[in-house]
Amino acid sequence: MIILGVDPGLTRCGVGVVEAGAFRRLSFIHVDVVRSDPHESQDLRLLRIYNGLCAKLDEFSPDAVSIERVFAQSNRNTVLGTAQAAGLAMLAAAQRTIPVALHTPTEAKLAITGNGQAEKIQVERMVTRILNLNTLPKPADAADALALAICHALRPSGALQGGEREQHLTPAQRQWAEATRKASHVRGVRRGM
């Protein structure tokens, strides 16, 4: 399974591609950043990002696209550009009938390091280790895109039932699955279920 991760941004939009093989073994395929010029008009910047994302989707033909879920930030202009770039990635994937998954930064950190509050350098080091890279992926947008692709590959699929499926999970995946089960239980209790 080929997974293309997108760390959305209007100036720098990170793109990372990994292959998830048997037993969730991961292989590095590609990392890059699609850029737009901050001095151009907003419409031209969005077009440049969209065209760059389309070129990557056409080049690598992924089976899934993993995009960082946009969340509220204090800088409104930053969150708007990020949300627009995320929307472009979703549109480009939908036009090619490629499934899209949205993951929060906390989910990606948890999947990669086992700690949802991990520092950026910890994530970069684990991405480097997981993919057997010689150096840290640069810039940070590129490393984040790879982390999102890895997150999608490592996430537990569905509710885990029985040891056979769980035995192939890494410790971080087991921790994530357990946190998901606990969160579901808490949400169910709050709703009176």
The overall pLDDT average reads 83
Described by strand count, sense and barrel closure, the largest sheet is: 5 strands, mixed
State the low-pLDDT regions, or none: 158-165, 183-193
What is the strand arrangement across the widest sheet? 3-2-1-4-5
Q: Give the N-terminus to C-terminus distance in angstroms.
A: 36 Å
Overall 3D geometry? globular
Helix content: 40-55%
**Overall strand count:** 5
Query: How much beta, percentage-wise?
Result: 15-25%
List SSEs in N-to-C order.
EEEHEHEHHHHH
Q: Pairing-aware structural class of the strands and helices?
A: alpha/beta
Q: What is the overall number of helices?
A: 7
Radius of gyration: 17 Å
Structural write-up:
By secondary structure, the chain is an alpha/beta fold. Helix content is 51%, strand content 18%. It is built from 7 helices and 5 strands; from the N terminus they run E-E-E-H-E-H-E-H-H-H-H-H. It has helices at 42-60, 76-95, 105-113, 120-130, 140-154, 163-166, 171-190, and strands at 2-7, 12-20, 26-35, 64-68, 100-103. A 5-stranded mixed sheet has the order 3-2-1-4-5. Helix 4 (120-130) crosses helix 5 (140-154). The longest helix is centred in the middle third of the chain and has 20 residues, at 76-95. It is globular. It starts with a strand and ends with a helix.
